[in-house]
Write a structure and sequence with these properties.
single chain; 527 residues; alpha/beta; elongated; binds zinc ion
Amino acid sequence: MFGPGRLFSLLNYLNKTFSYGTLLRYGGHIFKIMKRDGMGRIGKITTAHGDITTPTLMPVIDPTDIILKPKDMRREFGSELVITNAYLTMLHFGNDPVTKIHKILDYDGPIMTDSGGYQILRYGSVNVTPEDIIRYQDSIAPDIATILDIPTGVGATREYAAETVRVTLERAKQAVKIRSNPEVMWCGPIQGGLFTDLVEESARETGKLDYHLHAIGSPVELLNGYRYAEIVDLIMAAKKNLPLDRPVHLFGAGHPTMLSLSVAMGCDLFDSAAYILFARDNRYMTSEGTLHLEDLSYLPCECPVCTNTTVEKLKREPEVEKVKLLARHNLHVTFGELRRIRQAIVEGRLWEHVQLKCRAHPSLLEALSRFLSYGKFIERFDPVTKKSAFYYSGEESARRPEVLRHQLRLKERYKAPPLSTLAIIPEFGGKQLKSVDLERTHILKLVPPFGVVPEELDEVYPLAQNQTPKEPDAEQVRSVTEALENYLRSYGNSYERVILFNDHRRWGKQLEKACESVKEKLEIVQL
Ligand SMILES: [Zn+2]
């Protein structure tokens, strides 16, 4: 154990460990947060037809053309919640007399309905009033219903985008007064498209109303165009302004490639029509991207569909059967990725998982970089301790919230203990310290990508619980030299002697350069 000087420094550093994330544990009555990592969470939504674990994917069911039955989906893929379109249901089945949605879909599990907003985006308008569709959904009694919003879309002018936000918000206010079925939970959509200030306003104002969850609109066109970084801005603009205790649904983002990144940003629900639309188009999903059946020589997947057939057989199947098989494969891949994401959250490894996935496409890597640019906001949610060690898995690791948190705390809270000598040592080994008086010496370790770690902080997660390659890459060198420079500029004056134990093979001249501000009292010991 170290003396009172060092203990005081540790306590200063640890001060104010409260983070916004703590609040989430006591979230709203329908949504309970069980585990967190990044801004991602494993949660439980309680509905009239059972509990749903999030993050989850809702397969989209066309009520007029059911290819895979919801109850078969639950059995085969473990899907807990399906989504269908209330507007199409009303057109097809009429509302007199009203049949409950659970009967129409022959499913006794949780069902969500969308209202027709997507049809507006596709066809320009729908033949129903916002009030009618609220009353209709109350009468068919899904577990979660959605108001009739006006999707902004990607090509919108600012004026049009503002109008979609205004009208959607007005309808959201109106709907609160009309709703009558207490068993139905309501989703308040967020619009604004690429105008992030409008998205912020939409989220802030809708978040004040009595809604159980929110959906972020318009990402489908961006997803199809690989404009992932813009989706990050859209989601973050909404997340920064929505109540923390409400689940967030990302409309139409059911492809496995961006799932982990979206979960890391705090999205809880995803819907997928893609599984069937892609299947009709011979498109074969993988968690790294989409392949075309005609280009495949093998089926690169472990799902029951792919292990029970061959690519030649699949290509020869009659159209209806082929679509069904491809749809099932697409769902297996998506639910498989979802389970990996959940497991990663439990282990505290979501960041590593996201980094791995984002290497599948340059646009995803760009999106990850964009997400990390929101570091200060993310840091408030990311748990201060995790089950697993921090793994350095590429240069984005240096921008992870755990790293940022340490750097912020060193800068804003830390005070160096009153000791006369500073010994700067590489992370590994310790033999070199035999030559110093440990009582009077303050030891500063070099720990890439965290930077420098004063000895008294060594047990704070994850400053010792991390694995990085022994040969530092450019980003690791940068993180250490910058942190050392900053530390010495702040505290260099408080020491009489500074000893640098320099490991030339790893660091070259970089560390000496970083010690420029204390060169008068610097002693260098070459290792
Ligand atoms: Zn498969």
